[in-house]
TrEMBL record:
Domain DUF2241: 3-71
Organism: Microbulbifer variabilis
Name of the featured protein: ACT domain-containing protein
Sequence ranges assigned to domain CASTOR ACT in this UniProt record: 72-127
Gene3D superfamilies: VC0802-like
Transmembrane segments: none
Pfam families documented for this protein: ACT_3, ACT_7
Length: 136
């Protein structure tokens, strides 16, 4: 499968999917890293330490302070890493509605983490964005 780089095609075909799991963003100490590594959704090394996106229940289980809760929306289109404008377009659509968007771009898909209480609204907005592009 070839990655899509046309912004219009990506938006038209993004098929946003809301996941059931609730996630939190947190800092993970070196001592806890090995314990949570296999259950984490994402780990990123920052200058201040290791940041992680963990299932909320896991952070609670280990007593890790966190921000959130967030829900994950995956854009179900194979977007290329060289595609221009997807993050900005999605973030702008949600920002215009007052919804926080934390974007994580992986190799095959883009993921948006939105506050749990805004998840359904965010999903509707992204579907609407896709439909607007589809019918233009």
């Amino acid at each position: 499968m070839t990655a899509e780089v046309s912004l219009a095609n990506i938006l038209r075909n993004m098929c946003p999917e809301l996941h059931e799991e609730t996630y939190v963003f947190c800092q993970v100490s070196d001592a806890r890293l090995e314990e949570v590594l296999t259950q984490s959704l994402c780990i990123f090394r920052e200058g201040e330490g290791m940041s992680a996106i963990l299932p909320r229940c896991l952070a609670q289980q280990y007593g890790i302070a966190s921000s959130g809760p967030f829900r994950q929306i995956t854009l179900q289109v194979f977007s290329g890493l060289s595609a221009v404008g997807l993050t900005a377009t999605v973030a702008r659509e949600l920002a215009d509605a007052g919804i926080v968007a934390n974007m994580v771009n992986a190799l095959r898909h883009d993921h948006v983490f939105v506050p749990e209480e805004s998840a359904q609204r965010a999903l509707q907005l992204l579907r609407g964005l896709s439909n607007r592009v589809y019918y233009t």
